[in-house]
Sequence to fold (546 residues):
Amino acid sequence: MSGYPRFKPVADRAVLVEFGERIDAAVNARVIAFDRALAARPFAGFAEATPAYVNLLVEFDPAVTDHATATAALAGLLDGLDAAATEGRLREVEVCYDDDLAPDMAAVCSATGLSRDAVIAAHLAGDYRVHMYGFAPGYAYLAGLPAALQLPRKAQPVRDIRAGAVMIAGPQCLVSTLTMPTGWWMIGRSATRILDPGAERPFLFDVGDRVAFRRVDRARYDAGLAREGREA
Amino acid sequence: MSRAVLRVFRAGPHVTFQDAGRPGMKRFGVTRSGAMDRDAFDAAQAALGVRPGATAIEISLGGLVIDCLEGEVGFALTGGGFRARLAGEMLGDWLVAGLGAGQRLEILPGFWGSWAILALAGEIAVPQWLGSSSTHGPTGLGGGRLLAGQEIVVEEAATMAPRHGPIPRPAGARPRAEMRVVTGPQERFFDAATMGLLTEAPFTLSPAYDRMGVRLDGPPLRPVAALDMPSEPICRGAIQVNGEGVATVLLADHQTTGGYPKIATVIGPDIDRLAQMRARDRLVFRAVSPEEAAAAARTRAATRARWLGALARR
Fold:
């Protein structure tokens, strides 16, 4: 894509660094590489960077710097930026697909024409990567859901879904971290903590990490919940 | 130094504990939160002579009534023109006073302003979440909402008696009708006529107003391009426009990302002034360049440091 990256001044205190306009794994890899380069070499007055699918918002303290100075520092990070070298860490997430934990499994089977075992196999086979966080604390959008499972989201969201739902929509998968509404399809539950507010590192994933789902049986799922002190 | 215990007799909706917020977590989907009016928050701590960033109570137009059950504690009231009534006596706005056992403190909305800050001289014992007591609006995590019957324990409570009296309210605390914006970052979704409307037409705040943002009434700002943008990061003060052309200014508890275009962003020095406006208040947006916006922010930071310093030395 030509013309990228673009540096767009925002208000009095930020620059939006754009690497494209459409969701695309290569574009997101550039965003993540740039985010890491910035973390390694922050400029004077840098406050916070928020990476998303195709761009990243870089906020600064306007008492210390300005858009032109920040943009020059950011442009300097592009030299030698290697999107291929930013493979994140591999994080494992356990998932149990028992019927009572997978309220939308039947609907997903019927919409995709796949058997339950085939849906599970396809879900486990996905090569997932954390593209961004959004919507709610700890909601990490995992790209890489196999094409056979890609469905539009539900017409109406369902309220009060408890943390730990493993759900899919479009090309993405997500493990919920808080009780929230969702319009995504719930195909299992996980006892792996994505958000642990008391931990030194409260969020399991960094943007750019790879994620593998591992199937567990009910006993291990229940033990995981008990270990975390969470309700079933 | 001792302990004071207060009990909430009545609290309006959106009355919450707030501190300096949770910076640095937007990348994990956690918005900063913190006081809607950060000048008022900092002024209250400075005038009371307590730790900057300590937990305070943010009060909405619903007001707050609390009773002191034991001990005594100094307090500062700042923000909009809210009035304090202490043990039945009307004290006014922007002041430092003391609350003692058996006394009732009522905080009532006045003629202007949407939010007040009640700071207490001590450490309020409240739950922390991700390193902050600020209430995270969408989930209620952190210090949380104040509810009738709830007890509030203040450790290391002091009366700060030498500081009692009115707090000089800074010029500019009361919002003006003009709010400065920098256009974008997604102005590509709007045609020139709509961009013109943004700064030529008056808007009014609608009653759809909470800590996440305030919806505006005004001419529709209809996007001309299909709304197919990927979810993008959001800056506090962003003016987000939905498919029908309805604009919402995003405030302290805004979502971290969103898929609606942002036609413009209110500049830092003006956001919290906008937050002090009320439903049906009229405003106009004036476009400034990013350079002008940054210069205004620098001037503002210097002025702010001076008046906070003066308040602290009172």
Summary: The two ends of chain A are 47 Å apart (CA to CA).
